[in-house]
TrEMBL record:
<dbReference type="InterPro" id="IPR011060">
    <property type="entry name" value="RibuloseP-bd_barrel"/>
</dbReference>
<comment type="similarity">
    <text>Belongs to the TrpC family.</text>
</comment>
<feature type="domain" description="Indole-3-glycerol phosphate synthase">
    <location>
        <begin position="16"/>
        <end position="269"/>
    </location>
</feature>
<dbReference type="InterPro" id="IPR013798">
    <property type="entry name" value="Indole-3-glycerol_P_synth_dom"/>
</dbReference>
<keyword id="KW-0456">Lyase</keyword>
<keyword id="KW-0057">Aromatic amino acid biosynthesis</keyword>
<dbReference type="Pfam" id="PF00218">
    <property type="entry name" value="IGPS"/>
</dbReference>
<dbReference type="InterPro" id="IPR013785">
    <property type="entry name" value="Aldolase_TIM"/>
</dbReference>
<keyword id="KW-0210">Decarboxylase</keyword>
<dbReference type="InterPro" id="IPR001468">
    <property type="entry name" value="Indole-3-GlycerolPSynthase_CS"/>
</dbReference>
<keyword id="KW-0028">Amino-acid biosynthesis</keyword>
<comment type="pathway">
    <text>Amino-acid biosynthesis; L-tryptophan biosynthesis; L-tryptophan from chorismate: step 4/5.</text>
</comment>
<keyword id="KW-0822">Tryptophan biosynthesis</keyword>
<protein>
    <recommendedName>
        <fullName>Indole-3-glycerol phosphate synthase</fullName>
        <ecNumber>4.1.1.48</ecNumber>
    </recommendedName>
</protein>
<dbReference type="InterPro" id="IPR045186">
    <property type="entry name" value="Indole-3-glycerol_P_synth"/>
</dbReference>
Length: 278
């Protein structure tokens, strides 16, 4: 597989381009430490991936309400440091206790202060599907995700041309994982669906301005086909937003900041889940 990917499919000098440039530099350093062949060997020793698709599907129809993907998010480009997370395993266990359906772990280092160590800690702490949330632009990262026990990875449509999107989705599935394919626009939703994405997220954070507009989910949701698992990403600052996403047909909601800032994330999750049922 050709792993040379343009900085972003758009290549417009956006926040995304800057993040990806840093991701590529960090990746070269890791590759020098652990060559691809060694990663492949490690993958063979890891237990099979959990079924992320099954965990997230059905939230729009069943009485249990919307599924929640709870994120371990230390920092962000838009807000800087969000929370001290001395023990990501403890946070992940709170998420599981609060009824999360999956845990997302940001592993990008420069802007989000994440790491593969966080992924390892969360993987060992919960038996929920775990999403490696990063800016996936190279085959190496997919093997790395699986070697560290991830069950799902993020594919950002805006960061990949159609060939890479298709190839990376195929690689994800070959490794037994599922992909959350993230779109921001109607055109990106079409591209995600055309390459065969089974889980499509609409991220309401604009990657050019970093502005969050929760109403954007409703505008985009009508373009999501019935047979994909629909995820609303970002912008949850309380139960009302979860209820709104649920009312617009989301199967699952991805929540970061509101949970890491809450002193009792398990209780917060309980409120979010209850709101989607009311
Ligand atoms: O969070 C950011 O500032 C950000 C900036 C640029 C690219 C991605 C970014 N966030 C990644 C995410 O998608 C969120 O962490 C996730 O959806 C949770 O969002 P929130 O609940 O609003 O923290």
């Amino acid at each position: 597989m050709n792993t040379e990917t343009p900085a972003s499919a758009a290549g417009t000098g956006t926040v995304l381009d800057g993040i990806i440039a840093g991701v590529r530099e960090d990746l070269q350093a890791r590759r020098a430490e652990v060559p691809l062949a060694e990663l492949r060997a490690r993958v063979a020793d890891v237990p099979l991936a959990l079924d992320g698709l099954a965990a997230l599907r059905g939230g729009r129809d069943d009485a249990a309400g919307v599924r929640i993907i709870s994120e371990v998010k230390r920092s962000s480009p838009s807000k800087g440091s969000l929370a001290e997370i001395p023990d990501p395993a403890e946070l992940a266990r709170a998420y599981q206790a609060g009824g999360a359906s999956a845990v997302s772990v940001l592993t990008e280092r420069r802007r989000f202060a994440g790491s593969l160590a966080d992924l390892d800690a969360v993987r060992a702490a919960v038996d929920l599907p775990v999403l490696r949330k990063d800016f996936m632009v190279d085959e190496y990262q997919f093997l790395e995700a699986r070697a560290h026990g991830a069950d799902l990875v993020l594919l950002i449509v805006a960061a990949l041309d159609d060939t890479r999107l298709r190839d990376f989705l195929a690689l994800t599935h070959e490794l037994g994982m599922e992909a959350l394919v993230e779109a921001h626009t109607e055109e990106e939703i079409s591209r995600a669906v055309d390459v065969g994405a089974r889980i499509v997220g609409v991220n309401v954070r604009n990657l050019k301005t970093l502005d969050v507009d929760v109403a954007h989910y409703g505008t985009m949701a009508r373009h999501l086909p019935d047979d994909v698992v629909r995820i609303a990403e970002s912008g949850v600052d309380g139960p009302d937003v979860v209820a709104d996403y649920a009312s617009r047909g989301a199967d699952a909601v991805l929540v970061g900041e509101a949970l890491v800032r809450d002193g009792d994330p398990a209780a917060a999750l309980g409120r979010f889940r209850a709101a989607s049922r009311s």
